[in-house]
Design a protein that fits this description.
260 residues; 31% strand; six-stranded antiparallel barrel; mainly beta
């Protein structure tokens, strides 16, 4: 994460009545990876829902625990095989708080496909068994309403802290971003922003970047975004990070968890 690593921009309008499940699968976006620049190391275990998706020792993406046996990540992070790591602050120096799990089922959003870019960029992962919930590992709250423009949020991840040259930190990084209005988000990325996306950024270019994809954007303790895509290089103040707008998918998330 860093101030100049991938830019994402999202702006959300306030929804009085939330159609929490998107019923259409229209929309097309350029698929780009995401990352976090200009961040600081997180207060240890201040993001107990943060997950890392690794193949062997290589970080593929971030994720977020949304139920004891379920992690939410970006659909574009899908791979044949990965391990989910939770309760970790430093990927290279695991602590006793770490919990590791195999993934037994991947459920990308049914409307996400290669042809529509990063629309509906969400995927649920069912873990081999439920986590042991404690202060270091616990699910984040799901939203009952959408975020408001200028609302302050925390984004976290192990993504690169510099862009375009990549420098991946071992320690989980956190940064404070503000939600952009949907209008400003659409101006930043003409023709690429759908109703299921939200932008968040920082006037100094703090941003998510390569390796942060699938990680959480948390506003007042509630999950409002999943890191999806942004500008390349990351960290352009006029090009915010773009996140899957979780408030529009709460019904789908709950339905998949209940059915499985």
């Amino acid at each position: 994460m860093g101030p100049s690593a991938g830019s994402h921009s999202h702006t959300w309008k306030r929804w009085t009545f939330l159609p929490l499940l998107l019923t259409t699968c229209a929309g097309s976006l350029m698929a780009e990876d995401s990352r976090v620049l200009g961040a600081q190391p997180c207060e240890p275990h201040s993001q107990p829902w943060q997950a890392g998706l690794l193949k062997d020792v290589k970080l593929l993406c971030g994720g977020v625990l949304v139920a004891p046996q379920w992690v939410l990540t970006a659909a574009h992070c899908q791979k044949p095989k990965y391990t989910v790591h939770l309760g970790v602050q430093n990927l290279q120096n695991p602590e006793s708080s770490e919990q590791k799990f195999k993934v037994v089922k991947s459920v990308p959003h049914p409307c996400h496909n290669e042809s529509n870019g990063n629309s509906h960029d969400l995927m649920l992962l069912r873990l081999q068994k439920p986590v042991k919930v404690n202060d270091q590992v616990k699910p984040v709250g799901l939203p009952s309403h959408c975020p408001q423009p200028a609302q302050k949020c925390i984004v976290s991840g192990w993504g690169t802290t510099t862009s375009p040259r990549e420098n991946f930190p071992d320690t989980l990084q956190c940064a404070e971003l503000k939600i952009w209005s949907q209008d400003l988000c659409e101006q930043a990325y003409p023709g690429k922003i759908s109703d299921g996306m939200v932008c968040a950024g920082d006037s100094n270019g703090v941003d998510t970047c390569q390796g942060d994809s699938g990680g959480p954007l948390v506003c007042e303790g509630v999950l409002q975004g999943i890191t999806s895509w942004g500008a390349d290089p990351c960290g352009k103040p006029d090009k915010p990070g773009v996140y899957a707008k979780v408030c529009r998918y709460t019904e789908w998330i709950k339905k998949i968890i209940k059915a499985n």
